[in-house]
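Many introductory courses stop at the sequence. We go one step further.
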Amino acid sequence: MTGPTRDALVVAAAIAVDLLFWDGEVRLAGGGELPLWLPVLITVAVHSTLWWRRRNPLPVFGVQVGFALVSVAVPLWQPLVGLLIATFAVAANTDTRGARWGWLVTVPLASHAVALGLSAESELVGVLQATALHLAAGAACWIAGRRVYRRGLQLRAWQADQDRLRTEATLNERVALARELHDGVANTITTVLVQAAAARAAASADPRALHGIEAAARRAMEEIQATLALMPRGPGSSSGPQLDDLPALLALAGEAGLDVRYAETGVRRALHADVQTAVYRAIQEGITNTLKYAPTGTRCLISLAWGADELEIDVIDEPGRSVAPRPALPPTGGRGLAGLGDRMRSVGGVVESGTHKDGFRLAARLPVGVR
């Protein structure tokens, strides 16, 4: 049911009930009578304000309180339904300070009971009983409204929490995409860039063509780094290359002119896909750093040591005797090692890097069987 339809039904119900339970009595307390049409017209006009009870609960409540006091002048005219609905609306749609005004409902309710009792010449006990019943009805509407208000607060808090979780999930996806962009595409382009620059330096092909390859790869690297600069760092997680993809990675490094020596000791254990990806990325990052920063002729020593509880990964570069300069590559801002550290922590591992003799060492440790 739509909001306007519900509002129209509430207005119609309030008018209908108050008029149906009115017996047409129009005698004034001080003598005289009202025209029969006047109570009908006033009831319709006043109860029409219930349409705005949610948007403007306090003004509507004030109108209903004033209207309900008509029983002081016409004891047997007892319009209560609109007043009770307005009381509920005040309690359900205002904060604690606003909802306190709802207790003003006791004034017209008590006046209704007293006026009715006096007109019927009831005893004091009867008047008190009628007053208690009227006040109980008003209190029930107010309490029910406060329950709705608190439930609304809880629902809004839950929705805000869901929005926050969706935002965090989107952010984590962007972080994972950024890291994969660096770990996969950027490292591969670095290898292409090293190959092109080395071939051009050796004049083994048309220098202009190789220069074009190098320039395109360099531009791609710069664009990727610009994209990464917009991405926050975060742990995230995503599946990617596995241990079975290592031979292809080592072959690509060899084709780039790197002297790769790979050794694996111990018994290989089954690892979660994300952990295998972390191992692959650690080795890939070490190879990429060797290609980018080590001089030509550097040997890259890669080892996987499987222990009972831990897997140790080592990527060490040992510079050779060659003094040929390495090609100048675009700076990366250190995102590779930072992203690798985030990835390792997300799967329970650690990564360390630093100088090793005349070269550089990247070491990582992962608990076996993690996740």
